[in-house]
Amino acid sequence: MEEQFILRVPPSVAERIERLLNENASSSADGALDISFSEDGRSGTFMIGNETFPASLLDLPCIVESYKTYDDNVLIKTADVGQIIMVKEEGDTSVEGVEYKHGLTPPMRDARRRRFRREPDLNPEVVARVEKDLLNIMSGGTVERLHVETVAPEAGGQRKKNAPLPSAKPDVPTKSAGGEPERSDSDDSM
Asked: pTM of this prediction?
Protein backbone atom coordinates (compact mmCIF):
# COMPACT_ATOMS: atom_id res chain seq x y z
CA MET A 1 0.00 0.00 0.00
CA GLU A 2 1.35 3.38 -0.97
CA GLU A 3 1.25 6.42 1.27
CA GLN A 4 0.52 9.71 -0.48
CA PHE A 5 0.03 13.31 0.50
CA ILE A 6 -0.53 16.59 -1.28
CA LEU A 7 2.16 19.23 -0.85
CA ARG A 8 1.11 22.78 -1.78
CA VAL A 9 4.00 25.23 -1.93
CA PRO A 10 4.51 28.83 -3.14
CA PRO A 11 5.59 29.22 -6.82
CA SER A 12 9.20 30.11 -5.96
CA VAL A 13 9.57 26.96 -3.85
CA ALA A 14 7.86 24.87 -6.55
CA GLU A 15 10.50 25.96 -9.09
CA ARG A 16 13.28 24.95 -6.71
CA ILE A 17 11.69 21.54 -6.04
CA GLU A 18 11.22 20.91 -9.76
CA ARG A 19 14.86 21.85 -10.41
CA LEU A 20 15.96 19.54 -7.57
CA LEU A 21 13.95 16.60 -8.96
CA ASN A 22 15.14 17.14 -12.55
CA GLU A 23 18.82 17.55 -11.74
CA ASN A 24 21.18 15.18 -10.07
CA ALA A 25 20.71 15.58 -6.32
CA SER A 26 24.44 15.83 -5.58
CA SER A 27 25.01 18.68 -8.07
CA SER A 28 22.05 20.79 -6.92
CA ALA A 29 22.53 23.82 -4.70
CA ASP A 30 19.26 22.98 -2.91
CA GLY A 31 20.70 19.77 -1.48
CA ALA A 32 17.86 18.41 0.62
CA LEU A 33 14.15 18.52 1.34
CA ASP A 34 12.83 18.00 4.85
CA ILE A 35 9.52 18.35 6.67
CA SER A 36 9.31 18.25 10.45
CA PHE A 37 6.24 18.73 12.62
CA SER A 38 5.85 19.95 16.18
CA GLU A 39 4.22 18.01 19.03
CA ASP A 40 0.66 18.87 17.96
CA GLY A 41 1.24 17.17 14.59
CA ARG A 42 -0.45 20.00 12.68
CA SER A 43 2.20 22.73 12.43
CA GLY A 44 5.83 22.43 11.43
CA THR A 45 8.59 23.56 9.12
CA PHE A 46 9.49 22.73 5.53
CA MET A 47 13.17 22.97 4.64
CA ILE A 48 14.71 23.15 1.18
CA GLY A 49 18.46 23.63 1.28
CA ASN A 50 19.18 26.11 4.08
CA GLU A 51 15.85 27.92 3.84
CA THR A 52 12.88 27.13 6.11
CA PHE A 53 9.19 27.83 5.55
CA PRO A 54 6.24 27.41 7.93
CA ALA A 55 4.02 24.43 7.10
CA SER A 56 0.73 23.12 8.40
CA LEU A 57 -1.17 19.86 7.98
CA LEU A 58 -4.84 20.48 7.11
CA ASP A 59 -7.83 18.26 6.43
CA LEU A 60 -9.43 18.61 3.00
CA PRO A 61 -13.20 19.20 2.79
CA CYS A 62 -13.60 15.91 0.87
CA ILE A 63 -11.62 12.80 0.01
CA VAL A 64 -9.54 12.95 -3.18
CA GLU A 65 -8.79 9.70 -4.99
CA SER A 66 -5.34 9.17 -6.49
CA TYR A 67 -4.81 7.03 -9.59
CA LYS A 68 -1.84 5.86 -11.64
CA THR A 69 -1.51 4.22 -15.04
CA TYR A 70 1.10 2.12 -16.78
CA ASP A 71 -0.32 2.15 -20.32
CA ASP A 72 -2.32 5.42 -20.52
CA ASN A 73 -5.56 3.39 -20.82
CA VAL A 74 -6.19 1.63 -17.53
CA LEU A 75 -6.30 3.65 -14.32
CA ILE A 76 -5.49 1.97 -11.02
CA LYS A 77 -6.61 3.59 -7.77
CA THR A 78 -3.67 3.90 -5.42
CA ALA A 79 -4.91 5.95 -2.46
CA ASP A 80 -7.54 8.13 -0.86
CA VAL A 81 -6.01 11.47 0.13
CA GLY A 82 -7.77 13.46 2.83
CA GLN A 83 -5.06 15.88 4.00
CA ILE A 84 -2.81 18.53 2.53
CA ILE A 85 0.52 19.95 3.71
CA MET A 86 0.34 23.69 3.13
CA VAL A 87 3.70 25.51 2.92
CA LYS A 88 3.61 29.32 3.14
CA GLU A 89 6.15 32.08 2.69
CA GLU A 90 7.52 33.49 5.94
CA GLY A 91 5.35 36.64 5.87
CA ASP A 92 2.08 35.01 4.70
CA THR A 93 -0.79 34.46 7.09
CA SER A 94 -1.30 30.88 8.19
CA VAL A 95 -4.59 29.03 7.82
CA GLU A 96 -6.80 29.00 10.92
CA GLY A 97 -8.07 25.70 12.32
CA VAL A 98 -7.46 22.14 11.22
CA GLU A 99 -9.63 22.10 8.11
CA TYR A 100 -8.80 23.71 4.80
CA LYS A 101 -12.11 25.15 3.66
CA HIS A 102 -11.23 25.13 -0.05
CA GLY A 103 -10.70 22.07 -2.21
CA LEU A 104 -7.79 21.54 -4.58
CA THR A 105 -9.35 23.13 -7.69
CA PRO A 106 -11.10 26.48 -8.24
CA PRO A 107 -14.64 24.99 -8.51
CA MET A 108 -14.22 23.64 -4.97
CA ARG A 109 -13.61 27.10 -3.51
CA ASP A 110 -15.35 27.32 -0.11
CA ALA A 111 -16.66 23.80 -0.72
CA ARG A 112 -17.96 23.07 2.77
CA ARG A 113 -20.39 25.97 2.72
CA ARG A 114 -21.41 25.77 -0.96
CA ARG A 115 -21.47 22.08 -1.83
CA PHE A 116 -22.11 20.00 1.27
CA ARG A 117 -25.34 20.00 3.22
CA ARG A 118 -25.24 20.79 6.91
CA GLU A 119 -26.24 18.11 9.36
CA PRO A 120 -29.70 18.92 10.71
CA ASP A 121 -29.96 19.70 14.40
CA LEU A 122 -32.16 16.83 15.55
CA ASN A 123 -32.95 15.73 19.05
CA PRO A 124 -32.11 11.99 19.30
CA GLU A 125 -35.10 11.42 21.62
CA VAL A 126 -37.52 12.82 19.01
CA VAL A 127 -35.95 10.69 16.27
CA ALA A 128 -36.26 7.53 18.41
CA ARG A 129 -39.90 8.33 19.26
CA VAL A 130 -40.83 8.95 15.61
CA GLU A 131 -39.08 5.74 14.56
CA LYS A 132 -40.99 3.78 17.21
CA ASP A 133 -44.29 5.34 16.11
CA LEU A 134 -43.60 4.52 12.45
CA LEU A 135 -42.81 0.91 13.29
CA ASN A 136 -46.05 0.76 15.33
CA ILE A 137 -48.09 2.13 12.42
CA MET A 138 -46.46 -0.23 9.91
CA SER A 139 -47.26 -3.24 12.14
CA GLY A 140 -50.94 -2.23 12.27
CA GLY A 141 -50.94 -0.36 15.57
CA THR A 142 -51.52 3.29 16.37
CA VAL A 143 -49.43 6.19 17.57
CA GLU A 144 -49.04 6.09 21.36
CA ARG A 145 -48.72 9.72 22.34
CA LEU A 146 -50.57 11.61 19.65
CA HIS A 147 -50.63 15.34 20.27
CA VAL A 148 -53.68 17.07 18.74
CA GLU A 149 -53.96 20.82 18.90
CA THR A 150 -57.17 22.72 18.21
CA VAL A 151 -57.03 26.36 17.27
CA ALA A 152 -59.87 28.69 18.22
CA PRO A 153 -60.73 31.65 15.97
CA GLU A 154 -59.25 34.98 16.97
CA ALA A 155 -61.39 37.25 19.10
CA GLY A 156 -63.54 39.50 16.92
CA GLY A 157 -62.21 37.85 13.79
CA GLN A 158 -64.34 36.17 11.18
CA ARG A 159 -63.75 32.59 10.21
CA LYS A 160 -63.65 31.86 6.54
CA LYS A 161 -66.50 29.72 5.35
CA ASN A 162 -65.35 26.53 3.79
CA ALA A 163 -66.43 25.93 0.23
CA PRO A 164 -69.36 23.49 0.07
CA LEU A 165 -68.34 19.93 -0.59
CA PRO A 166 -69.58 18.40 -3.84
CA SER A 167 -72.64 16.23 -3.31
CA ALA A 168 -72.08 12.52 -3.32
CA LYS A 169 -73.22 10.73 -6.46
CA PRO A 170 -75.79 7.99 -5.96
CA ASP A 171 -74.50 4.46 -6.40
CA VAL A 172 -76.34 3.65 -9.63
CA PRO A 173 -74.91 0.99 -11.90
CA THR A 174 -74.32 2.19 -15.44
CA LYS A 175 -75.38 0.17 -18.43
CA SER A 176 -72.78 -1.20 -20.76
CA ALA A 177 -73.10 -1.36 -24.55
CA GLY A 178 -74.76 -4.81 -24.30
CA GLY A 179 -77.71 -3.52 -22.24
CA GLU A 180 -76.61 -5.15 -18.95
CA PRO A 181 -75.50 -3.06 -16.01
CA GLU A 182 -71.74 -3.03 -15.44
CA ARG A 183 -70.64 -5.08 -12.49
CA SER A 184 -67.78 -4.33 -10.19
CA ASP A 185 -65.67 -6.85 -8.34
CA SER A 186 -67.64 -6.17 -5.16
CA ASP A 187 -70.88 -7.20 -6.90
CA ASP A 188 -69.54 -10.76 -7.30
CA SER A 189 -69.44 -11.27 -3.57
CA MET A 190 -73.24 -11.07 -3.23
From this structure: 0.54
